[in-house]
Amino acid sequence: MCNKKPSVVVTDGDEAMKSAIKSVFPDATHRLCAWHLEKNVTTNVRAEELRRLFKKWLYSDMEPDDFEEEWDAAMDVFGTRDRAWFQDTYEKRKMWANAYLKDKFCAGFRTTSRCEGINAYVKKFVKSRYSLLEMLQSLELMVREYRNNELEAQFKTVNTFPVMTTGLVPLERFAASVYTREVFLDVKKEIEGLVAVNFVSKVRRLTTMIYTLEGYQDPGRHIVVLFDRNSLRFRCPCGLWTKRGFPCRHMFFVMKHEHLTEIPEGLVLKRCRKDAKALKHYAENIDQGSERGFLLRHGALHCASQRLLLAGAKSDALYRQTINGLNRVCDEVEGGINPPNPAKKAADLGGEVRDPVVVKTKGAPRVAKKQKGRKRKCTTCRRPGHTKRHCKILNEEDITGEWDSAFGPEFASQGSSRTQTCSVQGTTPRPKTRSQSGYGKRSMKEKVDQSETAGPSVSQLFEKNLSTESSESDEKWKEMMTQISAFSDQLVTRLAQF
């Protein structure tokens, strides 16, 4: 905050927060929230009279000696001196009793309601299920709402004027023309409250006037107000101007007796004025590179631009004129920040435009897959390159039994062949299952040895048989053809079953 530390911090009494404030802001005044303290009083105090005294100690203007005297008397009357809660509250008296805090400027803050109100307002825009992007967008919308409310309050303060209702019209009119609307309402209450102030005496000491006043229904308590006619300076023991930043009813009473028509300039804080954001207040000499100077200049430009935006949005012609003017001014301002360099501009125009550098993504690096993996092996012969369905040993073993049964033991004596496929009427037989082919009853070594020692193929034996049988009798030829036909029908029937 421009290297400025807060003078007063208001919290709910958390011990961790108390230690942090004492460590980070050792010179700041730590004040307990009045709302939380009243809640604790309601919980721990049963006597209604003692509750009323706590409320008096919390808000009334009194001296520390008066507070100590009343506290001791109340503890003796109600018998609560030895209770732990009362002892702990008394040790923290300088953090909540108004007798010790009346000289501290708190800008009217006694509770943490402003912070709690902001938290409740944020909950209307932000939900727990939102992503980071949605949360930022919602917060930006919330900030826009706050800025819109501020603009409405500023417009109401500048362009409207309240109705005068008090008898001190000059002072009330001056206050309405100087203070913001919210501060003016508080100042008006003090102007109306001077009717409850009674005059006691007035003494002159050189240029200083000493007024002795007293409150209505409080005649024994005198309030002495000092007023310097040359410097127009006031001093009041109530401390309202020190705490809130605007004159109290005792000062307004003296102004009435002195016939002042305006509030002295020294009693009007700049932060309470309606022109607090005017450009003339930002004309102070500040270092060029300081954060405070940047923030002040940024705030002044933002306030000045609001008038331009409202005027430029009224019509399409004014909008275009405003846009063109803003673009021209932006080019001039940017040119003043970074003056153009002809040599660099020519080099930029003639340079080669390349693709941007690709940023590496997060996560584990990708591992290249191996091109050569393990080859699948047949579960029957344990050889790679084929599966059990296309295994030569299993298929040849299934078909051999069919040919042996069809052509007789002659093929077996000559060494029946083990083939992979058989073409009978253009159909390829499907291999049998393990239960049908008898797989599993013989060892793998026997099957492999049998496949390696196989004789001539079935087609060769079939051709040889035809050539041999052609010289024999017609009767044996017919028998052979009958066997072939029977085998073919049997084979087709088996294929149809699969």
TrEMBL record:
Biased composition (Basic residues): 367-382
Domain SWIM-type: 221-259
Pfam families for the chain: MULE
Keywords of the record: Metal-binding, Zinc, Zinc-finger
Compositionally biased region (Polar residues): 413-438, 451-470
PROSITE patterns: ZF_SWIM (PS50966)
InterPro entries: MULE_transposase_dom (IPR018289), Znf_PMZ (IPR006564), Znf_SWIM (IPR007527)
Region (Disordered): 363-382, 407-476
Source organism, top-level taxon: Eukaryota
Protein's UniProt name: SWIM-type domain-containing protein
Species assigned in the record: Stylosanthes scabra
Classification lineage: Eukaryota, Viridiplantae, Streptophyta, Embryophyta, Tracheophyta
